[in-house]
Amino acid sequence: MAAARESLLDAAYTALACRPWSAVRMVEVAAAAGVSRQTLYNEFGSKDGLARALVRREADGYLAGVERALAGAGGTWERLTAAAEWTAAAARDNALVRALLTGCWTERLPAPPRGRAPTASPVPAQRRAEAPLPSPPDLVRMVRDRAVTALSGPGTGPSATVELARSCELAVRLALSCVAAPPGEGGVAELIRAVAPRQTV
């Protein structure tokens, strides 16, 4: 049922783009995905379960995009810039990613899932969705740690790793500042270029 699950999540995301989550109806999500309402309930259990899975998927998609950016060509700062630009673009284009990164959940969005859902779902993918979501500081650490792993060379010593982690976190936090206050000409890349020469990576 993986295909049906993804179709339902796609339909829920599309519905959320058009109206507040409180106005999204389960029957409409099921119809848009081409499945029965019972299939929707079998997969997610409730509207809250659907919201949890949707927010989890967007969090996972954001982190996957970070990893793609870090795996690109170029040196340390080029790859960090790519990850920072992805962060700013993802937050600009996806209200759920923006809420995850900033902690600012508007009334149009599903209420941010708090802790684990009361009952464990028999569906493995839903059990994962029900796990607690990362907070904004958690996401900063996750992106920083992924960047350190992607950018560390075979002989990177402890002190170099500490400096690299500092530079990676700086790039992430610069990107987040651009989410709150979009930069002018040159965008995120220009900000990172301005601080890169001062860093020892």
Topology:
Elements: H1 2-18, H2 26-33, H3 37-44, H4 47-70, H5 76-93, H6 95-102, H7 124-130, H8 136-151, H9 158-180, H10 187-195
Account of the protein in words:
With 201 residues, this protein is mainly α. The chain contains ten helices and no strands. It has one domain. It has helices spanning 2-18, 26-33, 37-44, 47-70, 76-93, 95-102, 124-130, 136-151, 158-180, 187-195. The mean pLDDT is 87.
Q: Which segments are poorly predicted (pLDDT under 50) over 5 or more consecutive residues? A: none
| Overall outline | elongated
* Strand-pairing-aware structural class: mainly alpha
The domain count comes to 1
Major sheet characteristics:
none
Helix content: 55-70%
How many strand segments? 0
**Sequence of secondary-structure elements:** HHHHHHHHHH
Distance between the termini: 46 Å
Entry keywords:
single chain; 201 residues; 69% helix; mainly alpha; 10 helices; elongated
At a glance:
By secondary structure, the chain is an all-alpha fold. It has 10 helices and no strands.
